[in-house]
Task: inverse folding
């Protein structure tokens, strides 16, 4: 019994270390991490690739969801109406709400950006469903996340066990898993980018000397970047109702809708000419005087 309790406590401790916390303390800790030299180099590479991606996407409304205090992520976008949503109060935020409960109408956003929002969400599936709900058909979703199969991911695996920093306590979401989730929501991945192959150290001198390693990994296209950027397009199409054309509609052979016919309709479907009709005398037909000859 004592061994089982000890094992259960260890498992609970591991789950707690690998699970994001509440939005308010997490965002406060992420703001402090954003001021460090590692964050400047990390977000600098992200912003360069985001500028290239967003410059090719068009629409009327753009939505930003960022777990960090990163403002103006969509500075290179040509979309004028841009909304920044955060879970804690900031000066640049347009809306303050939970990411899993977006106060936007369905199919009202042309481009949505999830900047590490899935990594620090307690309900990443619900967040992704909400982003898909507000996205219009043929709209684009840009997902930015941490790559667990990288030097930063390897360092974070041990840091979350011994460090109390909320930065390292996040969801482990590989690129393949996120692509599967997008596919279930009828979102097709059309672009993929990655970056920051250096070690996650806070020394500016070491980061400045890692240019050779960065260039080598980029040219060889090794999937070991510290982050990935997925661009997905919503393939759900709306149905346009088509009105029925009643002109020329003939439910019965020989019968035209809205047009009076001259003559009677024979069983074969042909209209008998007026000359073949029997003459009428009042309401009774007039019998012929001719007798049939054998």
Result:
């Amino acid at each position: 019994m004592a061994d089982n309790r000890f094992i259960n406590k260890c498992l609970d401790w591991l789950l707690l270390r690998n699970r994001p916390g509440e939005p308010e303390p997490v965002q406060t800790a992420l703001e402090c991490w954003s001021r460090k030299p590692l964050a400047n180099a990390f977000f600098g590479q992200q912003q360069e690739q985001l500028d290239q991606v967003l410059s090719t996407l068009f629409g009327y409304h753009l939505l930003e969801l960022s777990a960090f205090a990163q403002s103006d992520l969509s500075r290179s976008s040509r979309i004028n109406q841009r909304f920044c949503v955060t879970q804690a109060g900031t000066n640049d935020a347009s809306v303050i709400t939970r990411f899993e409960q977006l106060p936007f109408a369905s199919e009202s956003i042309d481009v949505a950006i999830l900047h590490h929002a899935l990594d620090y969400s307690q309900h990443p599936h619900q967040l992704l469903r909400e982003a898909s709900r507000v996205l219009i058909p043929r709209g684009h979703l840009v997902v930015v996340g941490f790559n667990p199969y990288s030097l930063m991911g390897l360092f974070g695996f041990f840091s979350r066990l011994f460090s109390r920093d909320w930065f390292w306590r996040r969801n482990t979401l590989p690129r393949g898993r996120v692509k599967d989730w997008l596919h279930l929501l009828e979102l097709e991945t059309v672009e993929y980018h990655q970056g920051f192959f250096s070690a996650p150290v806070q020394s500016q001198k070491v980061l400045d000397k890692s240019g050779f390693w960065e260039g080598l990994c980029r040219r060889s296209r090794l999937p070991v970047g510290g982050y990935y950027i997925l661009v997905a397009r919503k393939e759900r199409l709306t149905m346009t109702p088509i009105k029925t054309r009643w002109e020329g509609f003939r439910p019965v052979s020989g019968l035209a809708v809205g047009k009076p016919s001259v003559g009677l309709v024979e069983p074969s479907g042909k209209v008998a000419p007026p000359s073949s009709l029997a003459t009428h005398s009042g309401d009774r037909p007039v019998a012929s005087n001719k007798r049939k000859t054998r």
Summary: Confidence is low (pLDDT under 50) at residues 276-288. The beta strands are 61-66, 81-86, 95-96, 109-115, 135-146, 187-195, 227-234, 280-281, 284-285.
